[in-house]
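Q: My labmate handed me this sequence with no annotations at all. I'd like to see what the chain might look like in three dimensions before we decide whether it's worth expressing. Could you predict it?
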Amino acid sequence: MRNLLRFLTILGVVLGLSTQSKASDIIAQHISNAALVGQGRLSIWFFDIYDASLFAPGGLWESKPPYALSISYLRAVSGRHIADTSAEEIRKLGYRNEFRLAVWHGQMRKIFPDVKEKTVLTGIYTAEGKTLFYENDSLIGTIEDPEFGPLFFDIWLSQKTSEPELRASLLGTP
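A: Here is what I predict for the chain of 174 residues:
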């Protein structure tokens, strides 16, 4: 029994690393010399929601693309909730074009899947101004509007973010 538990633990670690490795492979396809800038965990009250990792060329983030944010979920979350929360967070950052936000919200609702523990969603803001979304190693959608990318990633990276501690961890700042 003990050996079985040990085997299952090792298998879980290997599978988790495999998923993160796939995300890193996808990022490397779009960002030359991609390296980790920082990482952190989003917890709400006593619930761990996800681990996030920010990647940029040479591990140095600038507000200009390309860069990527990879989120490894620690619990189940509906795709609808992810899209709704993303739109609301963009609004909280001060974005006021409700028509355009509604269009993006509709696109995000079509793109974001329901996730479960260990699902990895990766968003990549390309040098061409597109935002690509991957679930594990599969492309699940693209938003071509170059105005969307900076606003979407500002949910985590703006000084106005609702999660300043996570931002500091992602940017590697104290």
